[in-house]
Design a protein that fits this description.
The chain is of the alpha/beta class. Helices cover 33% and strands 12% of the residues.
Length: 446
Amino acid sequence: MKDLPVLRSASLDQMRDVTTSGLSRRGFLMGTSAVGGLALAAAARGGAQGIITTTAQFAKLASYGGNTLPTGVRPRLVPNVNGLTVNMLEAGTQGQPLVLLIHGFPNLGYSWRKVMPALAGAGHYVVAPDCRGFGRTVGWDNSWDADPTPFLMMNMVRDQIALVYALGYRKTAMVVGHDQGQLIAVYAAIIRPDMFPRLTTVSSAGGTPPSFPFAGEERRPAYTNAELDAEYAKLDPPRRGYQDYWASKQADEDMKHVPQGMSDFFRAFYYMKGGEFPGNQNLTPLRPMPNAKEAAEENARMPEYYVMRRDRGMPATMAAYMPSTEYVANCKWFTQAECDVYGQEYTASGWTGALHEYRHRRNNAFPPTLAEQLTFSGRTIDVPAQLIAGVQDWGANRIPGGALGAGKTGFTNFKGVRMVDGAGHWPHEEQPEIVSQHLVNFLKTG
């Protein structure tokens, strides 16, 4: 029997410091105790330090999505959702079969706007919420040292269960997750297949949860994240991994002060991870990396979003790759008005909530995220599932075999990979017609 693979996403590297097969009982107990201790500490200090409980901060903004929303797609606030007031987009008629769309990082429910009309036209009620920590959804702690418990995966799944119930449903027809949202969607399908009986992931297929060590099959990591970081520092120019950056206090501070302005930041960000960026052309999946030195060199094939220059934060990285004025003027799939929506929303909400997932996965010797997910050690994904991935997306190609290798382990009812040419990390925004057709067709299959 082989070890089950670690769950991965477009935003999730291999857990190198704590491998699932080499985890000691003592290490697990320490980790789970730490999670409980964090919750107790929060209770002892009288609750969260900076909970956003009102939407007043958004009152002076234009309506969510403004005039960029397709016909039939409309914003809505839903109160009393696992402690949240959820901001979401909806399309179709409530009462029709429900399709739930979960966004990734650094996106919003708004990112699904282009595929919602086709799903509604096929007879579904479609909703795309801003997740906890993102956008105009309120009821979460926006302080850097917030209690991590509400932002851990199981509570993020509970948010989605509560939203389904708040909308008057007992189950969905399908859950769809992109990037970090695919983690939520995958765990939703694992934990509540009765409520989420069909799964589509976008940009990464995920796999089985991390696993406890299995008797007689103990393995140790080829290298730790610290060893990889040391090798990154030796590259010319010196580099660092983007996840380590996003987990840092520096990132939280950097994103409070974006010199080029938030709209220009998103313009460069979407361009650098999109299908038109030169560094995303003719890519080949990363090869196996047996040691830290080879891993640093292999990872450095990816654009500098993934393996950043060590002396640059993310705003400076994006400023260096800002596309030309001519490109911006002619970009039809991401117009300036759409770019400005992201700029406006992130200026209003900030990035602290959006960065919680990175902090709880990277900043501890035994991350609470891993401790929690080990509850589902050995579980498979048993509902019908598919992956939609952009041909020009490094996010789907950071594991050996790339996107086309998805579904071979961890799934018992995998229905295939749909590759979308002319798309990078944002296929539902770059090629919405193709993605919409894949979603509708999947809903029609038995």
